[in-house]
Design brief:
This protein is α/β, with parallel strands linked by helices. The chain is 35% helix and 21% strand. The longest helix has 13 residues. It is globular and about 50 Å long.
């Protein structure tokens, strides 16, 4: 991390020592793919609802976006605050939108210590409550959308069909080159929300 404050460095070390459950930061390769699909132009309002320590949000800022973030983990929230991000919530599943966003980019956790497939619920919540009409959502999603047959997965598959989502298979090594490298089957979904007019 460049240009980090002393406090930020200490917080960052604490996160590395005990990473939050199901936190796998976006790799440079993944960020590049997501930014290409997002087509961010300067001045767009963007949200990262599971911001981690901000690598994806930083890339959106560099693309010229006005970025808000949400993060549930206290240490990661403190890092985001130290980096100067505008925090608009702590738990995306209970946060209420303060605005509608032109772009939402997210790499949500695939599960929590209590709920599997939480990414599916988060993506739908982002689309329905936070994404502006004519906006675009770009999100990583787990393979549970394909292999599970529970109500959550079935509803999500219906949602993808209804929204005409573009589903892109990601390389198995997409999370290599991060603080928590892992080999995982994952996809990127790109959804454009229809204009209300």
């Amino acid at each position: 991390m460049e240009n980090t404050s002393f406090v930020e460095t200490i917080l960052y070390q604490k996160v590395k020592e005990t990473p939050p459950y199901s936190w796998f930061p976006s790799s440079p390769q993944l960020i590049k793919i997501m930014l290409k699909e997002a087509q961010i132009t300067p001045g767009l309002y963007c949200l990262e609802p599971t911001a981690g320590y901000g690598v994806l949000a930083e890339a959106m800022v560099q693309a010229g976006a006005i970025v808000d973030v949400i993060e549930i983990d206290l240490l990661l929230r403190q890092i985001l605050f130290q980096k100067g991000f505008n925090l608009v919530g702590s738990d995306f599943l209970t946060s209420q939108p303060q605005r509608q966003y032109n772009r939402i980019l997210m790499n949500p956790p695939f599960s929590t210590n209590k709920v599997r497939g939480i990414d599916l619920a988060m993506i739908q919540r982002a689309y329905h409550l936070f994404l502006a009409s004519s906006g675009r959502l770009v999100s990583v999603v787990s393979n549970s959308m394909n292999i599970k047959n529970d109500e959550r997965a079935q509803t999500f598959r219906g949602f993808l069909k209804q929204t005409k989502a573009n589903v892109i298979k990601l390389p198995l090594e997409i999370f290599w080159g991060t603080l928590r490298p892992v080999t995982v089957e994952a996809y990127l979904i790109v959804i454009d929300k229809a204009s209300e007019f």
